[in-house]
UniProtKB/TrEMBL annotation:
Gene Ontology BP terms: DNA transposition
InterPro entries, per the entry: ISAs1_transpos, Transposase_11, Transposase_11-like
The protein, known as: ISAs1 family transposase
Entries under Pfam families matching the protein: DDE_Tnp_1 (PF01609)
GO MF assignments: DNA binding; transposase activity
PANTHER family, A to Z: H REPEAT-ASSOCIATED PREDICTED TRANSPOSASE, PROTEIN YBFL-RELATED
Domain of life of the organism encoding this protein: Bacteria
Residues annotated as transmembrane: none
Location of the Transposase IS4-like domain: 40-133
Length: 199
């Protein structure tokens, strides 16, 4: 997650947890034969730090929880999409793995997502960072806004370990596609939320 360098943790080792289909297994997957691998991917090195086949009768959520317990994650920041924004996963990272986390939040955690949205709508943001990029046929502007996690309701802070000391993040992106001849398409806006606990 590119904004981690802005949030004072750029020097920490970052591992992304994600389920991927190997290119050579894609045809089998399309036939309904599941060949998904769960990877802990080193964003600095650009390689999979560890990888395991996901059981056909399961999915990446329990696989990540079980696999992370076998790895040495101490001192790292584990990042993941909204599927991995699970209280059990966060608790295991904090208590057993001694790792920190940065996880996307969507409607699969409806109460948490709603309260984060509410915090940003009601609280002035002092910490923010903006970037602009032009290339690959598009223009993109990103605004990163950060608020203390302790603004969330106490009942959420009790079940989301580390969030009281951490922070919540809103990332707003505006993207404009540039067609041949320099014609610009209508700008689209995308808002994403994250919870972050960098100790």
């Amino acid at each position: 997650m590119p904004f981690l360098s802005y949030l004072w943790v750029g020097s920490r080792k970052t591992l992304e947890v994600d389920a991927r289909i190997r290119e050579q297994d894609r045809l089998l997957h399309e036939r309904g034969e599941q060949h998904q691998f769960l990877s802990f991917y080193s964003t600095e090195a650009g390689i999979a730090f560890a990888q395991v086949l996901i059981d056909k009768k399961s999915n990446e959520i329990p696989a990540a929880l079980k696999f992370a317990q076998l790895l040495d994650l101490q001192g790292t920041i584990v990042t993941g999409d909204a599927m991995h924004c699970q209280r059990k996963f966060v608790t295991m990272l904090m208590n057993e793995a001694r790792a920190d986390y940065c996880l996307a939040v969507k409607q699969n955690q409806g109460k948490l997502c709603k309260e984060i949205e509410l915090c940003f709508s009601q609280t002035p943001v002092e910490h923010h960072h903006e970037t602009k990029e032009v290339g690959h046929g598009r223009k993109e502007r990103r605004l990163i806004e950060v608020l203390p996690g302790e603004l969330l309701p106490k009942e959420l802070l009790k079940v989301w370990l580390g969030l009281k000391e951490g922070c919540i993040v809103r990332q707003t992106s505006w993207r404009t596609e540039i067609r041949a001849g320099g014609k610009e398409e209508e700008t689209t806006e995308k808002v994403r939320y994250f919870i972050l606990e960098p100790n």
